[in-house]
Amino acid sequence: MAAGECSAEELTQSCLDRIAEREEAVGAWIYLDPELALAQARALDAKKKAGDPLGTLHGLPVGLKDIFDTADMPTECGSAYYEGRRPIEDSTTAALLRRAGAVILGKTVTTEWALSAPGKTANPHDPSRTPGGSSSGSAAAVADQMTPLAIGTQTGGSMIRPASFCGVFGYKPTFGSISRRGVSMLARRLDTIGVYGRTADDLALIGDALMVHDPEDWDMLANPGRDLTGAMAEGLLDSFKFAFVRTPAWDQGEPDMTSALEAFVKGLGDVVQDVTLEGVFDDIVNTHKTVIHANVATFLGEAAEKAPEKMRPETHGRVDEGKAISAVDYIRALGLAEAQGQALDRLFDLYDVILTPSAAGQAPQDLSITGNPAFNGMWTLLGVPAVSVPLLTGADGMPIGVQVVGRCGDDARVLRAAKWLWERYGGQGK
Questions:
Q1: Active centre residues (catalytic)
Q2: Do the domain assignments include residue 409?
């Protein structure tokens, strides 16, 4: 793009052509206006021709999960409750994408309210399988080469698990790195905006464009910027010191995933050591469940009561589960999460990053579910950065990701480790 080998309009049109060819099978998009997308691209080309300063994402199409407000597109959150909703202004994320010169290609499918009731999206590698959730359309669109970049969110496992199932790079930054103003809230304590791409460098590029402090998101870090692209340009270390962690959810892993990951880790040699998280971590999966469901009841309870017919049974069930949680149990869970975070932080005094599963296994052959989030929720609860790297293949030839997890704020190291693994071992173990 910078060299003039491709215009924004040409790249956008190529993405639209791919969508026209594949959307019926994949179903990644809930709103797409080709003329609106091309108008954005043409305006960017005119800006470049005039010699104006260009943004870091100049001309790059981006898919935006349908829970982010946009002034020129509907935002319906995958819900009948919000059918026909047209925001009057952009979310901070949408505004930052435009400021960086991106083309907002359209809105990608989300599960209802970014929870567990699936949308229409199928897995691009096998349409009989789930793409994961809740950022299903975003992951599938990148995997199927409909767009080079896409935005999603994670409250449980909604970024990392779809990345694993669809075979793309997915990045959940440190909590508080990207503003959530103008994004449908599900759990203030957990909601994290993330990005999809086809390389670790792509994740760094779009991550830098979005990590700008916004005082309207009270949970944002004061200085979220990481200069991720600068860190990636420094070159990679000769090796990293990895901790291979079998989390308390390990027994929920499928045999082909556990055997493939163990073989992959063994092949890394002495740069990795087995580490067991026990004691304070024993109940971390349930700790996350308590926190997320109490928040779901808080943020969706009114809608469930006001228009129950406009909420799907899966979502009603999650709201009901949250209503049954006592204040005592919720406060206890928050205290335990704080202790778990402190204990995990000490682990990073000894290791650069953690290697652990991105998902329980291959994408399930069932479009009525989004997969098991047990391998993701604990990292969301603790607010640490995580990247899914598409390194492995399951028994049926479907992708399985390896999750790289780091210390809070150490996003650059996590991305560099992900790139190191991909450059040295990408394709091995398949």
A1: 65, 134, 158
A2: no
